[in-house]
Each structure stands twice: as C-alpha cells, then as structure tokens.
Amino acid sequence: MKLRSGDTVNSNRGQPPLLTYGLISILIAMALITLVGLFAGTVLLRDSQQHTLALGVIALAVLLVIGLSGVGLSLAAVAFLRRLRTLTRNLSAIDQRTTTLADTIANGQGDVSNETIALVDPTESVKLLADIREILLLPETARNRRFKSLVTREFRHRLAAADNYISIGEFQSAREELDNLVERFGTNDQIKQTQERIVQAAEAAQEAEINHVSAEIEDLMGLDQYDEAQRMVKELITKYPEAAPARDLHEYVEERTRKYLHEHRQRSHEEIQKNVNNRDWIKALDSARRFLEIFPAGADSDVLRDQMETLETNANIQIRQDFERQFKEYLAAQKYWEALTLAKHIISEFPTSPQAEALRGQLSRVEELARKQRKAT
After folding, report:
1. C-alpha–C-alpha distance, residues 307 and 290, integer Å
2. What pTM, to 2 d.p., does this model score?
3. Do residues 304 and 292 touch, judged by C-beta distance below 8 A?
4. Where are the domains of the chain?
5. pLDDT per position as a tens digit, 206-257
C-alpha cells in the first residue's frame, strides 16, 4: 500500500493527552478543597466550645495534608508531562522519517540499503561533550597549545607509520603516508628527509634484488637451464622496467641464450652426422628426434626432417640384426629358453622381416632343446 507524506502511524500523538486535562482538574479540585478547609477552620476556631475547637483543628490539618499532597502530585505530573511531550515529538519525527522512506521506496526513487543510521554510544557522546566543554572553557592560549599538541602527535604518528613501512620494504605505502602528511600539514624538513630515505631504501632494495637474481641466473645458465633463466629475467624487467641494471641483465641473458642455442644446435647436428658416418642408425635416429624437438624450425631442421624415414628404416634393420646376433649367441651358450623368448619377440615385433621368416622354422627345434635341457637338470 502506498503511503502519502501527510500520513502518520498514529495521528493522535500530536494531540494533548487526556491525562493532562485530568491532572489540571485534580489540581483545581485540590485548591478548592484547601480553600474550603481554611475557611471552615477559621470559622470553627472562632467557636468558644473546646470540643468544637478540637474538631476544627483536626479537620484543618487533614485538609492541609490533602492539599499539599495534591500540589506535590501536580508538580510531579507536570514534569512527567514535559518528558512525555518530548518523547511524543521524537516519535512523531521518527514516524515522519519512516513515512518519507516508505514513500520514496514505493515510488522507486531510493533503496533502503542506501539509508544509514548512525548508532552512537551514549558514553562516547557524553565523553565527547565533556571534552568539548573543557576545550571551550580553556583560555585562547591554552586552546592553541592543545591544538598544536594534537597536530604534533598526529604528525609524529603518521611519520612513524611511514618509517615502519620503509623498514619492511613497503615503499608505496610509505609514499602514501607522506602524501597524506603533505596534504594536511605541508612540506617540512622531516618529510623531505623521510622522502629521501624512501628513495635510498628503494634503490638499495632494488640493487640487492637485481644482484640476487643475477647470481641465480648465472647458476641456471651454468646448468644449461636457459628457459628458467629467461623467465626470471623477464619477471625482473617487468618489476623494474626503468632500472638500467635490470635491462642490462636482460640483454646479457638474451645474448648468452642465443650463443648457447647456436653452439648446442651445431653440436647436435655434428652428433647426428657422426652416428650416420659410423652407421650407428639407432643413435642417429635418437639424436635426430631430439634435434627436431629442440630446434623445430630452420633450414637444417627441414633437411633432417626429410631424412627421418631413411633413418627409421636403417635403425629397424640394425635392431633386427642385433636381435639376430643375440639369438645366435644364446644358442652358442646353450641358453635355449632365452633364445626361444627372443625369437618369439622378433617374430611378434617384425613379422614380415627376413629374420622372422627364418626364426619361424627354428622355433620347434629350439623349444625341444629347451625342454630336454630342463629335464636334464
């Protein structure tokens, strides 16, 4: 339901309560009773009879007590009504604020989450008011001294925070602290000295880190781990792009890497050629595969890639020949079970090879020799 700005939760809060009229009526009645009692007491005191005089005194005392009690109750009621009126005004203000918020939300003009209610600790408020009163009661010179003391304490606190950031290497945070100080208090000798310390400490930390990374990179290049060395120097140049030592180290690593790759490429190619000349086709094939994995691009890589089929064919022939020679050595040493196992492996791996064709006719004879040898033992 949409609320209008003129609506309130309780429309009777702003009207005088009925209790007010009741208390006023009681106060008037007490005053009349007191006046009547005084008049009656005066009349009775004029009588000469002793009995009538006693009754008049008692009646007058009772009426006076009632009247004074009524006056006291009336004063208490007045104080209560004042507090009640203040509370009523506060509740009305809350109702009005609630109605305004509800109307704003209903019209889609706001969000409750954007409304903040400040909750203030009453004890803190009292302490703050006491401090304000104390400051206001101080003479002008005393207030100036107190202000200067607060400014000095705040300045020292911020300066100490900047020094702490410098000690732990958080130079950006230290610079931010100094920027806040300059914005609030201006520049002075202490701030300038701290700024110089930041520059010096940052340069020292940068130099130490570059030297440390440089030593690690040297160790990595000594172990031929040039990929890791390049990764580390790239991280360093990203962190300190304006540092000349970092740029120099980056150029040094790139030059060393290019030289290493050139020499390694040349050695690898020479190793392949040496194995080919020695007709060690197995080693030549293995070296060629490593070369193409490390150096996939280049004229020499393209030529070697065209020769891979020939190297694989020759390597397979060499493998079969080595197996055949090993098979004959087993037979000569009367290791028939080893010879039988190797023969089956050759037939399985190279079924169309000449070695496999020759071994198929020898399997039964080799197996018979192996069984006789087992029975003999």
Report:
1. 14
2. 0.43
3. yes
4. 18-107, 137-199, 212-306, 311-377
5. 899 999 999 999 999 989 898 899 999 999 988 888 889 999 999 999 999 9
